[in-house]
Amino acid sequence: LAGGIILGVALWLRHDSQTTNILYLQLGDKQAPNTFYVGIYILIAVGAVMMFVGFLGCYGAIQESQCLLGTFFTCLVILFACEVAAGIWGFVNKDQIAKDVKQFYDQAFQQALMAESETNNGRAVVKTFHETLDCCGPDNAIGAVTPLWRDDLCPKKDSVLKTIFETSSCHKKIDELFSGKLYLIGIAAIVVAVIMIFEMILSMVLCCGIRNSSVY
Known about the structure:
It is found in: Basolateral cell membrane; Membrane. The chain crosses the membrane at residues 36-62, 68-92, 182-206. GO terms for molecular function: lipid binding. The chain is mostly helical. The chain has a single domain (1-214), classed as Orthogonal Bundle (Cd81 Antigen, Extracellular Domain, Chain: A), CATH 1.10.1450.10. It has helices at residues 2-14, 17-23, 36-63, 66-113, 122-133, 141-149, 160-165, 170-212, and strands spanning 26-27, 30-31. A two-stranded antiparallel sheet has the order 1-2. It starts with a helix and ends with a helix.
């Protein structure tokens, strides 16, 4: 069940419309940074393997097999080590992920403001960011006035005042998007780690109980 829950959360994060719309963009020959998906793929792998390992543990407990329970424990230790490594990697790179995406957006935004933007897809990339995140412009002076002098790039509002006061900077929206997703990944990883610790303890207790049983 835990493996199924983790797999479901990971697949939802992987196919979330906001992240897929942004991270599948391409600016000329440059692909949008997709480092974020590394953590997602690790979660998918852990969830799938946990489902198989859970079946192995249940079958070993039913059959009272020390070999299967020992294999179950070993697999859990390996999964736990992988998850700790992924958690450390995520903590180290949590700020870098949003930073890379913001740099990609800034490059597209600069090209969209230049005459040569028609020869590349900078304008299309920027509009995708703006429509997906409901934002307009980077987090600087140019971004603050972008809704006024380049309203063709920004999401349409009912009035000029709403355009000025209700439009957020895309840097802020990118930070919110990835911090929220990474927060969910962190919660899922902690829940799985706690469950794994209990599974390892209980599997060893059961394995020792079988070994010390008078039947054997």
